[in-house]
Amino acid sequence: MTLLPRLKSLQARLLSLLLLMVTLVWLGAGALTWVDVSDELGDLLDGHLAQSAALLVVQQTGHGNDVSANDTEDSHVEDAPSLHKYAPRVAFQVFHEGVLTMNSANAGKTPMSGKTRGFSTVRMPDDSAWRVFAAQGSEGDVQVFVGEQVKSRDAILWAVLKGVLMPLLSALPLLAVVGWLAVRNGLAPLRHLSLTLAQRQPHTLDAVVLPDVPTEIAPVVHSLNALFERIQTMVASERRFTADAAHELRTPIAAIRTQAQVALGAGSDDAQRNRALNYTLAGCDRATHLVEQLLTLSRLESSSTAAPTGCVDVSALAQRVAADLALIALGREQELALDAPAPALIAADDMLTSVLVRNLIDNAMRYSPDAAKVAVSVKVSENQVMLQVQDSGPGLAEAEMARLGERFYRVLGTEQTGSGLGWSIVRRIAKVYNAQVSVSRSAQLGGLCVTVQWPLAKPR
To answer: Strands 129-136 and 142-149: what pairing?
Structure first.
């Protein structure tokens, strides 16, 4: 059995296992047949010995009274004639009142067995093993011994077994051929599937269709078709993503080129040149921000799940992000308020969670007017951690709220630059860590209210 895993061919492995099982069954059947036939043959031959001894006892008892003591002393014991080629393998002795009166030529003159009744296996002077049956007459004056060579019994047993087992042994090669044909025919659907996949073009992602798919192969075909469907969806998404990204990058690059041309043509007008260079730097910052968001989204899309690396305190994280964005809020005279009184632990990655919180607060500040108010709060319930970001901006219509999170979708009518990828990143990170994101109108400030809810993590 240890050799089977080393075989790379499934057909060879199945055929080897089949032949091994057939051989083991054959050996088991042969062993059982050997034991059964040996027992039955032994009983049969022992019965023959007992019957022969009984006949000799009856014969000797019928003639024993006619033999006088003087006749016994003067008589010459004659050896029984050998009438068959197997006669030397059988021997008998007849004693009357302790005197040998009849025996076969190969029995000798001394009693064949030390027992007076029953079966025994003895060794003769020539070191041959004999099976001997001893019997006595009803009056005890007649003692009969009948024996048979053990090797003669073994020869009979082997002859019987050879007639039974040899045909089965000869059939093993035929079974090997039949097993090979059966295994090859059974694996034909796998070969058909392999050939079908080998003939497919690299860009072909249609479902694999096979006639009469066996039950064992159907899960493989279904899994392949599901994989092709996922790949097709991913390829279509990547193509759309590439096209949209190229379109979005074209705008800041064109703006940078235009401002660079303006700076070159400004001549001695330092103010115009400086203004063009500032616009160029702003365009570079916009392109850099877009590329960073594209890279973040690409990393998130490359894996369907991300295992949490530890516990993140959303309250502490929100404080850190708010502190980083405070200078921007002051520059626009915006009020950035934070309410995170208690630790709020979630099972997530610190970097990705920071990206999510930063995008939400940055969007609230970016799309709110100067002197607007942005309120961030973190609350902990029994099993949930809730982050809310509200602003006093113009808010969004219901149709616009529904489209938030679509790649490169931007609300029309805003003066802020952006690619619309921030919301896509937020949605993707929330999906990775089983967080729920909802958007509504803020009842407190009148603008937009974004709520993110995570499962509460137990502290370690």
So the answer is: antiparallel
146 DSSP β-pair partners: 92, 133
pTM equals 0.44
- The three-class DSSP label of residue 410 is coil
And the tokens for 210? Answer: 């096979």
Q: Cα-flanking dihedrals φ and ψ of residue 236, to 5°?
A: -65, -40
Tell me how far apart the alpha carbons of residues 427 and 452 are, in angstroms, rounded to a whole number: 10
**Structure tokens that stand for 334 in this block:** 């915006």
Q: How far apart are the first and last CA of the chain?
A: 47
Residue range 177-203, pLDDT digits in tens = 888 888 888 878 888 888 888 888 877
Q: Are 340 and 378 in contact (CB under 8 A)?
A: yes
Cβ atoms of 104 and 91 within 8 Å: the answer is: yes
- Residues 361/321, Cβ–Cβ less than 8 Å: yes
The Cα 430–Cα 440 span in angstroms is: 17
* C-alpha gyration radius of the chain: 51
Alpha-carbon distance values, 216 to 210, 213, 221 (Å): 13, 8, 10
**What does each C-alpha distance from 264 to 94, 252, 271, 383 come to in angstroms?**
141, 18, 13, 61
Q: Which residues pair with 391 in a beta bridge?
A: 374
Q: What type of residue sits at position 281?
A: L
Structural contact between residues 264 and 273, judged by C-beta atoms closer than 8 angstroms: no
Q: List, for residues 270-319, the tens digit of each pLDDT value.
A: 787 777 777 777 777 767 766 766 666 666 655 554 555 678 899 999 99
3-state helix, strand, coil in the chain (%, to 5): 55, 15, 30
The residue among 211, 125, 201, 164 whose CA lies nearest residue 32 is 164
97 — alpha (psi -120 to 50), left (phi > 0) or beta? Answer: left
